[in-house]
Amino acid sequence: MTSHVNTEPRPIHGNGTAETHPLTWRLKHHEFLHDVDTYESLEGYAGMKKALKLTPAEVQEVVKAATVKGRGGAGFPAGIKWSLMAPNDGGPRYLICNADEMEPGTFKDRLLMEKLPHQLIEGMIIAGYTLEATQGYIFIRGEYIEAARYLNEALEQVRAKGYLGKNILDTGWNFEIHVHTGAGRYICGEETALINSLEGRRANPRTKPPFPQVAGAWGRPTIVNNVETFNNLPAILLRGPEWYINLSAHKSKDPGTKIYGVSGKVRFPGLWELPFGTTAREVIEEYAGGMRDGLKLKAWLPGGASTDFLTAEHLDLPMDADSIMKAGSRLGTCLIMVVDETQCMVSLTRNLEEFFARESCGWCTPCRDGLPWSVKALSAIEHGRGKMEDITHLEQLTKNLWIGKTFCAHAPGAMEPLQSALKYFRSEFEALIPKEAESVVQTSNAQQA
Q1: Residue limits of the NADH-ubiquinone oxidoreductase 51kDa subunit iron-sulphur binding domain (predicted)?
Q2: Fewest Cβ atoms nearer than 10 Å: which of 72, 94, 264, 285?
Q3: Long-range contact pairs involving 32-39 (C-beta distance under 8 Å, separation at least 24)
């Protein structure tokens, strides 16, 4: 793939208006928006004020009509998820923002929290009002020190405005938001493990059902959504579902815009807010400037480390859930990781599997024992000690650790890059097997025949 003619990066805040870039347009005017008054001068908290003049049921219908899909990777419609929350019985009800963001290659939520903390808070207030929540928590990874500080400062400003606390804007509704710093485990991206960690327990996933909407934090009805999901709500309340749906490109079934990103050896790694359905080629070549001089694209992960590799032949696919799924991968977080032809797929895959093995919570045997076995086999192949049967064992692991055979989605996610690396680049694995090992297997097979 050749580099694009652009010689200057196109930053996330370089273009766009409130009508075209609802998540990031304010960054065209200010590099950071940490001050509540500055944020309010740019339509800040206008969506929240409009929501609070409606009934919770009316706001929920707006979110449903907009078909807002979760931005954490699963892509489940937020309005439907909210509708499954248990009815209000007068007891505590919780709203949690999943800001753990430990997916390798993913850094979109960090940008939103560090540059636009009030936008997240406004979105959570809208969601909290809709769900009649009593407490909200931003569960943020411990390494995001600056983001946590900016959020806490913004919350203090919002409390002074009367947008949090008791009887918010004379609605009779009481709601508070707290920042909770996590201890740093990838498994906390799974919502029930996150809830366990929030409660002070070991971060193991829970059995479902019951789902958090019925029995979540401290046994009470709970909704968990991603940072970027909440950031969509203020603009939707202001401009309506039809406007939001029409933002997507290439007749994508996924409405709105998405923060796309690229990491790896491209000319301009970064983040850009683009319409859902923008092709991978556009993101990589036009916005990231293409591969660095002298390099050629070999593969790419569409949305973080726990998605399947795709190849150059897939670059013209729209980056939406259906298109990427039909190609054999998942959209995930939409932050593309590019692989160039100088990189060894065996080494790259081993590195990813080491991460997943380390981050397993250890709760179920297939994940706890299976992931280290994948690392052991990949390391043997990588260092010239492998056998052809190691490749067979790796293929079997991708089946034994698949969906429905483990307690949660951690191990199946870890198998996605492995199974696709074997699918598209098996020759690289076989090329590292010593010839004598190949001969032993061939002789054994001949004797058996």
Answers
A1: 346-391
A2: 264
A3: 32/114, 32/115, 33/115, 33/116, 33/117, 33/118, 33/119, 34/117, 34/118, 34/150, 34/153, 34/154, 35/157, 36/118, 36/154, 36/157, 36/158, 36/161, 39/116, 39/118, 39/119
Which of 340, 374, 397 is the C-terminal boundary of a domain?
340
Instruction: Give me the domain span that covers residue 269.
Output: 257-340
Give domain status of residue 5, yes or no.
no
| Integer Cα distance of 401 and 3 in angstroms | 38
Q: Per-block average pLDDT, block size 10, for the chain (449 residues)?
A: 42 73 94 96 98 97 92 80 95 97 92 97 98 98 96 98 96 97 89 96 94 97 96 97 90 89 96 94 96 96 95 95 94 94 97 97 94 98 96 97 94 97 98 76 52
Q: What is the pLDDT of residues 189-230, one digit of tens each?
A: 899 999 999 999 999 999 999 999 999 999 999 999 999 999
Q: Six-digit token pair at 270?
A: 């970064």
Pick the last residue of a domain from 315, 340, 365.
340
Tell me the pTM.
0.92
Same domain? 164 vs 229: yes
Number of domains making up the chain: 3
